[in-house]
Prior knowledge:
Layout: H1 2-24, H2 30-35, E1 42-54, E2 57-71, E3 74-84, H3 98-105, E4 110-115, E5 118-123, H4 124-129, E6 136-140, H5 160-167, E7 171-173, E8 176-182, H6 183-189, H7 191-196, H8 203-206, E9 209-216, E10 222-230, E11 239-252, E12 262-263, H9 280-284
Parallel strand pairs: 6-12
Antiparallel strand pairs: 1-2, 1-11, 2-3, 3-4, 4-5, 5-6, 7-8, 8-9, 9-10, 10-11
Amino acid sequence: MKRILTGVALATTAALMTATPALAAAPKDPVVAVKKQYVAGKGVKFTERTTIIDGVTRQIFVRRTGTLQFGKSGIAASDITGKFNINLSDLGELPEGETGDMLKAMATKERTVRVGTTSYLSGGIWASMLPEGETWFKAAKGPTGGLTGTFGQPLNLAEAATLKTLLKGAKASGSSYAGKTKVGDVWKASPWLRASLLGKPSAKALKSSFSWKITVNAAGLPTRLVTTFPGSVLGGDGSISVDTRYSGWGGAVSIKAPTDEVADKFENGEDDLSNLNIPLGSLAG
């Protein structure tokens, strides 16, 4: 009997010793994990979709794919393609003139290449506004994702400062974190958000919150982010939900600015994006 008990004790001890490393392993700190990715020529890819929620109605509004390239201190460049979830056949009879041409153009993909803080915009509405023979519009301190980027993911988890802001007071559960963060706090922390929106949210909107859930892998790197926030942040109604999936952390990335067929003024001679009169209501309706 003593031999049997000794054998059971030894087996139990061995099992506990085997299990201990897994039980003792603390979750990787996502902020530290992301900072380790800041290597020149490396990056991460993402895909996402934006859904507009109005009461019980949910409608996919924008789909985007993109690549972020890192430098030693964070995001150095990006290449993002977005499209409103509409086809020309969905628009019906269009008004003649500039508004009709713009709506037609908005049913096509747009692409934004951003190097540093300079953006190069192509396709979508930009194609209808550029001088003949030009493909890209160059905008100093331009948007991160063109027009569709306004409706893209407002929380960029590749920004360590943004991720740190979100995780303050967040609830951790297994491989995920969840929480609510004031829009104003993210606005202060995130150059990406400030560059993505066409204008600063109202004082009331800045006091509202992003509700979010982050899923990370074993290394602590984000693999999915779902964010929900009031439409008032973008000057609209209802609420908006953005589902972003990250992949390929640490992969080789090389994003370069276009050098051919680049214009720094629109066909009408304007170069200020804040003066654009974009009929978004015709799309959302």
